[in-house]
Amino acid sequence: MTTPASSPSLSDLVAERVGFGIFVLDREMNVLMWNRFMQDHSGVLAEEVIGRPVFERFPELPRAWLARKIESVFQLGSFAFSSWEQRPYLFRFDHDRPITGGVDYMQQDCTFMPLMREREVIAVCVTITDVTHVSVMQREREEAVAKLREYADRDGLTGIGNRRYFETRLAEEFSRWQRYGGDMSVLLFDLDHFKKINDEFGHVAGDTVLRTMAQRVAGVVRKEDIFGRFGGEEFALLLPCTPLDDAMRVAEKIRHTIGDTPVDVQGEVVSVTASVGAASARPGSNDYEAMINEADAALYSAKRQGRNRSVVLLHELN
């Protein structure tokens, strides 16, 4: 009876049948072995590649990178590994995932194993594992997490940043201002008599007004500005690197952006105005809350003065 240990053909049979690629290279990068997986996915038969430099048949391979990997195994006599996250693939093999998976070629993990004889590395065995499914699943998971994070930062009605997002960014910008100095201002504004709009036209119309106003303002602010809904009909705009006098010009621009054109809500013309309060970061401030409180006080001053105006408290100008 023939035992597995005494049958060298069994190892060849296993190498042919396993569900991953196996090929062997010598120090000159000549192919010494090429299993069925490699044949099936490359379309190149073993007899067409064995005994020849691997780059002769596959010139698209990353020559310098692969040569360094192989040489390091010869020199160190230890395993090496390359994940698809570091290099998505070694060979441009087709995959069986749907096109919607977002990958062009089979994603591959590669292991480089020294083949030793009398403590000397005589060749390197490279295995290719198809991890396309894993990579697609991970990408989908990362995209889902990114969307959840985005949704967590967005206001559900208007689509702009919510209060949590705004205050997080404000804290970051305030810390930067504390380190490097310069200018930073903030505007708080809300829509005048918004309750009256809801009472007269209904909450659906009120929601439409809020969305429209948010879109209008978002369309005129700078890319580096941070715009968010503070709650209800109140909004906040952080203006990095902006002195108070420039912030007041932005406040007037926003006020006119909101008030110059009424909102058409299902045939109803709804006039909207806004009151704006401004404040800036001042030397000696330990936290951003003082700036927010001053802008809030300025906003209420605008309300008391008759609404539809931009206000900054007098002590801010000193």
TrEMBL record:
Q: What is its EC number?
A: 2.7.7.65
Q: From which residue to which does the signal peptide run?
A: none
Q: Which reaction does it catalyse?
A: 2 GTP = 3',3'-c-di-GMP + 2 diphosphate
What InterPro entries does the database record attribute to this sequence? Answer: Diguanylate_Cyclase (IPR050469), GGDEF_dom (IPR000160), Nucleotide_cyclase (IPR029787), PAS (IPR000014), PAS-like_dom_sf (IPR035965), PAS_4 (IPR013656), Rev_trsase/Diguanyl_cyclase (IPR043128)
Cellular component annotations (GO), alphabetically ordered = plasma membrane
**All residue ranges annotated as the PAS domain in the record:** 22-77
Q: What class of enzyme is it?
A: transferase
- Any Pfam family hit: PAS_4
Boundaries of each GGDEF domain copy? Answer: 182-315
According to its UniProt entry, the protein's GO biological process terms are: cell adhesion involved in single-species biofilm formation; negative regulation of bacterial-type flagellum-dependent cell motility
Q: Per its record, how is this protein called by name? A: diguanylate cyclase
